[in-house]
Specification:
It comes from Muribaculum caecicola. This is Outer membrane protein assembly factor. With about 775 residues, this protein is of the alpha+beta class. The strands form five sheets. The protein has a 16-stranded antiparallel sheet with strand order 12-13-14-15-16-17-18-19-20-23-24-25-26-27-28-29. Strands 8-9-7-11-10 form a five-stranded mixed sheet, with helices on one face. A three-stranded mixed sheet has the order 1-3-2. It is globular. About 0% of the residues have low confidence.
Length: about 775
């Protein structure tokens, strides 16, 4: 807490200094020049209809060649102020450091301003406003040495598409386009928008290349716009020009077929680039494809055949090439994949598909070491990880990990069974790059393109009070689309087993005489579940060279799982006897429950440096049959860096339950229902730093009235009164490959019984403030 308070004081002091220096924003502006202080774009309504133009201001700002220094919260040029903290001597280290953190003043350039106006006018023309005009109003303040620039766009009357005609001499291509006319973007009545015309060209090109037209490119498609004098209605004609393959050919396009599919397994991009012929130590023919092996048959022919969607004798199809890239990219042993289509000599209607593969490292070993010191008790930990990326010559990925930790303990150990902390753990898993499942057709397996994962884990723990064994096993499938924007995971079976072979006398009765939740955490238990996870987003991979940014981003996560149903059915059908009111397997009671969880996040980017993110999450778990309570590790908890940030992790709820701020009461602060809501404003500051303001709300509840969680049960007529609220500020350091986050959350409304309900009105620093340090955004 002292460290966090010190950090806050440093941040406040630095911010005050920056605000003071910010008053002199022209410190480093040369004499006779102007600081570009403000830039505004004003778009007038349509001159005829009076309607506003459907182009966002943020989009138009992307076409400006000069932008003023960024303002934090709309008024403070923090980056410029940081730069202005530096002196004029650029040789001093402190001045170089401050200039690196900040940004220099943007000097107004009339030439760039005129170029920006031309770019804006061209953008309007591309959108269908052919008569658009852009005027520049430059306000130059000689006394303050600042320039305010305003771009006034007069769009004029737009051009609309009245009719759409197609001029396609090739009848085969004309039939294909006519059969897909509804899917094409150009429609009569729309604006003459060049973006839509480009989309039409791209979609037609993709359509034809997927039906054998290998030589077809979008350059074969042109448009002709016919307008009457003074009219704004356009008669648009799409023309597909014939392109001869050879001078001796007719002026018709040709459909290409695949003659041969040839794999080159030891392709060297540096040495073999541009080669027309490849040598091989061994050539294998398998189901119509040819494989050129080097000194090692490191991939089985069946693996290559299943990963290849290109088939000899079939029509050329761009979609098949993309699917082949996707499938081969899932083979972890491959470092580089390139597919090249080559016309067959003497036969212009056929192509050979050369699939060049470069092998990566087959085995990887890593070692990690760490040391600990807990109030003078020394300890160490180590982990050894081994990976084999081609275990059975089918790009099977083997992961094996062994970890061990030890900590010596001092003190009196009378009555205890151990005088140390010791933990040994192993994890073993293998991932197959295909769908391993019986009774499924090969066509389905090739379409889904799922990875199959088998895993096992074993963990042995020694504590002064007990010795515990935790074991697990899983069989699951994972698959996603080409852009990785849609992901699925299906857990066919996931087994968890916990056993305490040794403990001190009456250990469980002493720590949990009447708490079923705590007892369950230390008693032997068995979980066998089946589950499904769904993930979807529209987030695109950012292009650092592009000034365009994605304005709206959403992410959906959902999961559902159920446990114990198969075991319960077997127990019921076999007339097994209940022991202690529950069925058992191997002498251990197994859990039976159903659980569903969902989260939705929406982020609106006002600019590349300013955004607003909203999040809502809900979940419910229901025990039934063989269980009266959901396993502790499967229950929901509230508070923490990714929850309601005015509370520490596992210190909020359930409902109005009051833990009396007891750290040891975390076992009771879990529930079967959750509801979280958050709103966060994010603002880039300077260097890698980013600031945030947030408001969080939510809580957890139990689905039943448990004795050890009074006030925790969910009731429709009062749950809304038990939604906790918090607010706060955050500081983040974005290093691109990871993000460090420090958040300070403050309680605003506390639903806990016998607690101050409105800390927002009656705040106390020590009671109501919580700091969170974590990695990544909260949602």
């Amino acid at each position: 807490m002292k460290l966090c308070n010190h950090i806050v004081r440093v941040i406040i002091s630095f911010s005050c200094a920056v605000c003071f220096i910010a008053c002199s924003t022209t410190k480093h502006v040369p004499q006779g020049e102007y600081l570009l202080d403000k830039v505004a774009i004003v778009v007038k309504p349509d001159s005829i209809s009076g309607n506003s133009v459907n182009i966002s201001s943020a989009e138009l700002h992307n076409y400006l060649r000069q932008h003023p220094n960024h303002k934090v919260l709309g008024f403070l040029k923090l980056q410029l102020a940081t730069y202005n903290l530096s002196g004029r001597d650029s040789l001093k280290r402190v001045n170089r450091f401050l200039r690196k953190l900040g940004k220099p003043p943007v000097i107004y350039d009339s030439v760039l301003s005129r170029t920006s106006a031309d770019q804006l006018r061209q953008t309007m023309i591309n959108r269908g406003y052919m008569d658009a005009r852009v005027d520049i109003v430059a306000g130059l303040n000689e006394k303050k040495r600042k320039a305010d620039i305003k771009y006034i766009i007069t769009p004029g009357q737009p051009h609309y598409i009245a009719t759409v005609d197609y001029s396609i001499p090739d009848t085969a291509i004309a039939r294909i386009i006519a059969g897909n006319m509804r899917r094409l973007p150009i429609k009569p009545g729309g604006l003459l928008d060049r973006r839509i015309l480009e989309q039409e060209r791209a979609q037609i090109t993709t359509l034809l290349r997927n039906q054998g037209y290998y030589s077809f490119t979008k350059e074969n498609i042109t448009f002709s716009a016919d307008t009457a004098e003074g009219a704004k209605d356009v008669n648009l004609t799409l023309l597909i020009k014939n392109k001869p393959l050879r001078e001796a050919d007719s002026l018709r396009f040709h459909k290409f077929r695949i003659a041969n599919v040839i794999f080159v397994t030891d392709y060297n991009p540096g040495k073999d680039f541009g080669k027309r012929h490849f040598s091989a130590q061994d050539t294998v023919s398998y189901r119509g494809i040819r494989i050129l092996y080097g000194d090692d048959h490191y991939l089985r022919p069946s693996i290559l055949y299943d990963a290849c969607s290109i088939r000899p004798g079939g029509l050329f199809c761009q979609r098949d090439i993309d699917l082949t890239y996707e499938s081969l990219g899932r083979l972890s042993i491959l470092r580089y994949v390139n597919i090249e289509m080559r016309p067959v000599d003497g036969d212009p209607g056929n192509l050979d598909a050369y699939i060049m593969l470069t092998r990566g490292k087959k085995q990887v070993v890593s070692l990690e070491l760490e040391g600990t010191n807990s109030e003078g008790d020394l300890g160490f930990g180590t982990s050894l990880t081994y990976q084999h990326k081609n275990l059975f010559h089918g790009s099977e990925l083997l992961n094996a990990k062994f970890r061990a930790s030890y900590e010596s303990l001092s003190g009196n150990f009378n009555g205890f069974i151990n005088n140390r902390y010791v933990e040994y753990g192993t994890e073993l898993g293998i991932v197959f790059p295909n769908f391993k499942a019986p009774f499924l057709s090969s066509r389905f397996k090739r379409k889904v393109k799922a990875n199959t994962e088998f895993s096992m884990s074993f963990d042995y723990q020694e504590r002064p009070e007990y010795t515990r064994i935790i074991a697990g096993a899983a069989w699951r499938y994972k698959w996603n689309n080409i852009g990785n924007t849609l992901r699925h995971r299906f857990d066919l079976i996931d087994i968890n087993y916990v056993r305490l072979p040794q403990s001190t006398l009456n250990f469980i009765d002493e720590i949990a005489p009447s708490n079923p939740l705590l007892r369950y955490s230390y008693e032997d238990h068995f979980i066998m579940l089946i589950g499904y996870n769904y993930y979807r987003t529209n987030k695109r991979i950012a292009n650092p060279k592009s000034k365009m940014f994605q304005q709206n981003v959403f992410t959906i996560r959902a999961s559902v799982e159920t446990s114990g149903n198969t075991l319960y059915a077997i127990s019921s059908l076999s007339d097994a006897k209940r022991k202690g009111g529950a069925y058992k397997v191997f002498g251990i009671q197994y859990a039976q429950y159903a659980k569903a969880d969902a989260d939705y996040t929406y982020t609106h980017n006002f600019t590349p440096r300013t955004s607003m993110a909203a999040h809502i999450g809900m979940g419910i778990g229901v025990p039934y049959g063989n269980s009266s309570v959901i396993p502790f590790e499967k229950r929901f908890y509230a508070g923490g860096a990714n929850g309601v940030r005015g509370w520490g992790v596992r210190t909020l709820g359930p409902g109005s339950y009051n833990s009396k701020n007891s750290v040891s009461d975390f076992i009771n602060q879990c529930g079967d229902i959750r509801l979280f809501m958050s709103l966060e404003f994010r603002q880039k500051l300077f260097w890698v730093l980013e600031g945030a303001f947030f408001v969080d709300g939510g809580n957890i509840w139990t689905i039943r009235n448990y004795e050890n969680q009074p006030g925790g049960v969910f009731k429709f007529n009062k749950f809304y009164k038990e939604i906790a609220a918090a607010y706060g500020i955050g500081l983040r350091a974005d290093f691109s490959f990871f993000l460090l986050r420090l958040d300070m959350g403050v309680k605003a409304y506390n639903p806990a019984q016998e607690q101050e309900p409105w800390p927002l009105i009656h705040p106390r620093w020590n009671r109501d403030t919580t700091f969170h340090f974590s990695i990544g955004y909260p949602f």
